Amino acid sequence: MFNKFQIIKKFYIFFFIFTLLIQIIISLCKTTYSNTFSNDFIYPSDITYTSSEFGYRILYGKSNFHTGTDFPVPQGSNVYATENGTVKSCGFIQGYGICITILHPNNYISLYAHLDENVKSFVYIGKEVLKGDVIANVGPKYLSNGVLNGNTTGPHLHFTIYNEKGKLINPLSLNLKKKS
Ligand SMILES: [Zn+2]
Fold it and tell me: Does this model's pTM top 0.70?
């Protein structure tokens, strides 16, 4: 009888530990899942058509390599994080004007250019952003100090993607989805 009781006791202890482990594994899986990079990039603006595409183009009569895709959104429009990530830089870059870069978990980097000077009210370096978060507004052609807001002929959003090797790729090759 004693042995039987011990076996049952052992069985219950084993069962208890087993269910506990299963619960821990499930909760760990859930956390991992919610942190999983979906690799599902969205358009950085409400406009999904482009005014200038990635690649070689003629600019001021010369062949010029366009490092990204332009979206013809008016000044003040929202700019969205294309995927979850961490803000890597935020400030003025020659050619891009006021600009943000975001590092994504797959080591891709997205860049958003010709932004408004109020960018610091949305993001800071090191900030974790989620896909679809408003990270900036589209800026004016000229900044408050009279400087041209990058190589721009007027307000629009320039969007660049670097892959994990730091190579420029066509942002539209990511099969961007519209922000839901
Ligand atoms: Zn551009």
Answer: yes
